[in-house]
From TrEMBL:
The Bro-N domain, residue ranges: 16-132
InterPro entries to which the protein is assigned, alphabetical: BRO_N_domain
Lineage: superkingdom: Bacteria
Protein name per UniProt: BRO family, N-terminal domain
C-alpha cells in the first residue's frame, strides 16, 4: 500500500479481505476481535494460542511475537480513550496481539490446517520479491456507484481453507446434533424405565400392605377362636357353670369369687363390668373406658378380662363395628 493510501481516514478505508474470513482461514476458528477506531485489529492471545495448539501462551508470545505486536488490553484501549469491553472474558491484564502477531503465531504453528495459509503467505513474499508488489485480483462485479468500495477476489488458498474449514465445522455440527439426539433418546428410555420401576415398587407396596392386613385379621380371628375354645373346655369340665336363675350383680360377683382367686385388679374390673352385663345383657364398653373407670392401664384391663374368660366367668360373642369384642355372661 503506498503512502497516500495510508493517510486515508478510517471511514474511507476498506479491507481487501474480510478480517473475520482472513483470521478463520489462518486459525481455523472464529476468534474474538477488537477493532480500534483507526481500523487496527487486536485479538486475545489466549484464544489464538488455544486454536493453534500452543499450550503455553506466554512462551508462544515471547518466542514468536515482538513487543510491538503484543500488549495488555488496558494499554490498547486506553490509548484510544476506550473502556474495557463488558463480559467475563475481557480483563485489564488480558494479553492481546495485532493481526501481524496473529500471523506470526500461525507461521509458528505445526497444525496441518495452517498449511494452505502458510503457502499463500510464502506466495505473497515470493511475488513481492520477484515483482516488487502483490495485489489481489479484482472481482468480476465492479461497484455500481461511484465512490463505493472496490471488491477483490479472495486468494484461492485462503478461500479453499475457509471452505474446507466450514465443511469440517458443518460435519462437526451434524455429529454433535446426532449425539444430542441420541442422548435425548437415552434420557427418555431411562425416564421410562424409572417410571416402570416406580410402578413396580408401588404395586409391591400395595401387595405388602394387603398381606399385612390379612395377617392381622387372621391373628384376631385366631384369638377369638382360642378364647372360644378355652370357654368351651371349661364349661365341659365344670358342670353347672351357667346361671339357672336371672342373675343379679351380687350373684354374678359371688359366682366369680367362687370360680377364681380374685385379685384386687380383677375385682376392680369385675365391679365395673358386672352391672353392665346384668342390666344390658352384654358388655360393649371399650377397654379405654374401663381403664379410666378403674384406674388401671388398658393392658392390665385386657389381662383381667382374659382371666375372666379363661375361668368361664364371661364369654365373647361377636364384636363391635370397630372390631372390639362383645362379652356376655355364660348363660346368655
Amino acid at each position: 500500500m503506498n503512502e497516500p493510501s495510508k493517510r486515508k481516514s478510517s471511514t474511507e478505508r476498506h479491507e481487501a479481505i474480510d478480517v473475520s474470513d482472513f483470521v478463520y482461514a489462518a486459525t481455523g476458528a472464529r476468534v474474538r476481535r477488537l477493532t480500534m477506531p483507526d481500523g487496527k485489529h487486536w485479538f486475545p492471545a489466549v484464544d489464538v494460542c488455544k486454536e493453534l495448539g500452543h499450550t503455553n501462551s506466554r512462551k508462544a508470545l515471547a518466542d514468536h511475537v515482538p513487543d510491538g505486536h503484543r500488549e495488555m488490553l488496558e494499554t490498547v484501549t486506553g490509548g484510544y480513550g476506550l473502556s474495557i469491553p463488558a463480559g467475563r472474558g475481557w480483563r485489564r491484564d488480558l494479553h492481546v496481539i495485532s493481526l501481524q502477531g496473529l500471523i506470526l503465531l500461525v507461521n509458528a504453528c505445526t497444525k496441518s490446517a495452517c498449511a494452505p495459509f502458510k503457502q499463500w503467505v510464502a506466495e505473497v513474499i515470493e511475488t513481492v520479491q520477484h515483482e516488487g508488489s502483490y495485489s489481489l485480483d479484482k472481482a468480476e462485479v465492479q461497484p455500481a456507484e461511484p465512490g463505493a468500495p472496490v471488491a477483490y477476489a479472495m486468494p484461492e488458498q485462503v478461500a479453499e481453507a475457509i471452505v474446507r474449514l466450514e465443511a469440517h465445522n458443518l460435519r462437526l455440527d451434524e455429529e454433535l446434533a446426532g449425539g444430542q439426539r441420541e442422548a435425548i433418546a437415552l434420557q427418555k428410555e431411562m425416564l421410562t424405565a424409572h417410571q416402570d420401576a416406580l410402578a413396580v415398587q408401588q404395586a409391591t407396596l400395595a401387595v405388602q400392605q394387603a398381606t399385612l392386613a390379612v395377617q392381622q385379621a387372621m391373628v384376631r380371628a385366631m384369638e377369638r377362636i382360642a378364647d372360644r375354645f378355652d370357654t368351651l373346655v371349661l364349661e365341659r369340665r365344670t358342670p353347672g357353670t351357667a346361671f339357672t336363675a336371672p342373675p343379679t350383680t351380687e350373684s354374678v360377683l359371688a359366682h366369680w369369687r367362687e370360680r377364681l382367686s380374685v385379685t384386687e385388679d380383677v375385682w376392680a374390673v369385675a365391679v365395673v363390668i358386672a352391672p353392665v352385663l346384668v342390666e344390658q345383657g352384654e358388655l360393649r364398653e371399650p377397654l379405654e373406658s374401663i381403664a379410666a373407670r378403674t384406674g388401671l392401664s388398658v393392658h392390665r384391663v385386657n389381662e383381667c378380662l382374659r382371666l375372666l374368660r379363661k375361668h368361664a366367668c364371661i364369654r365373647p360373642r361377636g364384636g363391635t363395628e370397630d372390631g372390639a369384642p362383645v362379652y356376655v355372661l355364660p348363660q346368655a
